[in-house]
Write a structure and sequence with these properties.
The N and C termini lie far apart (152 Å). The protein is of the alpha+beta class.
Amino acid sequence: MPKQKWNDDKIKLVLKQMPYIKDERSPEFIFRTIQMKKKSERKSRRIMPVLATVCTLMLLFVISQSFFDSNREDSFKRESKMADNSAEMKNKSYDIAETAESENYDMTDEQGERLTTSLIPSAIYEDEVGKQELLTYPIPDKNVQVIVPVSILVENPNKLSRFDLYVENVKKVIGVNKQLSSYFPISPEMFAYDLKDDYIEVNVKQGISNFGSHSEDFFNTMVQQQLQTIGAKKMEFYTDGKLGAVLGNREETSIEYKPLENRAYFLLENDEQDDQALYVPWEKPYDTIENAFDAMENNIDTHGLSASIPDTIDIDKVSKDESKGELVVHLSNESKMEEDQKTLHAIESILLTAKDFKYSTVKFENTNVKEVGGFELTKELDVPVAANKVDIEQ
């Protein structure tokens, strides 16, 4: 189909050929209609911004609410977390405090234990005595096999005589150690002291049958220790006013005082761990201190005595200056002194034995430690004045 070419004349001709259309509306009606449409368009243009503003405000409100809720939730979470952290910190603080308290308790307990088990000498030395009176009682062990010298320091405000002070305190030493007998065969309570002739009368109402069949040395040690402490020269025995008394399997009339000397010190076998070790002088004297030291390396099982010089200590030789009362104990290179109870017992046993041999000081040579239980082994050590100190109520 050929393409038509349009121009103004042709367009006018076509329009004239179209049917006639007449608008029967009046001009006033058409004017009002147009005016109303314009007003409607103006209203529409004014409402749309308002609606848009309202929608924007609503949208902002919703967003803000969501934001605040989110913040509130975050804040709640933060507060909850902070509370949890605070509680956790409190718990940790409590745990730390509890741990510290426990550690402090353990430390205190450990210090109490160290203090309880610390190395403390059990003999009595001159500097401890001061103005007090030293009294030594010969108490049998619980099996009544050996005599254990038990020593106390007491005040004497009433200026009693040695004899009266000795009798007054005898009951205080009975039962102070579970290793000792509670029975005192020749108790000072049976004594009467003749001050003029310086002797002790022992008045026995009947024979002491439960004294046992002990050796002469056992009986002699008990008597001599009491004479030595009191300072008397003799002990006489009476029964119902007559001279002589039956003591176990022997009859005695009187015993003269002879100094207790040249004895070796052993340890009483200890089944009671809470009691201190007790030093026991063997009832027979030794001719030399070297022989005494040799004996102290072995047990005396028949009498419940343990060696006081352990295998860790080997005495190579001893040097003596009897004019000065000095004894030097040389240890072999194989010796190994340790800072323990066993070594402390060995040192005190050697010092007590040296005292029995009339030495006043002991010097140890070639020791591998400088101090044990307060004893400075690099210096001369003073011998004790008595063995086995016990504390009593005064």
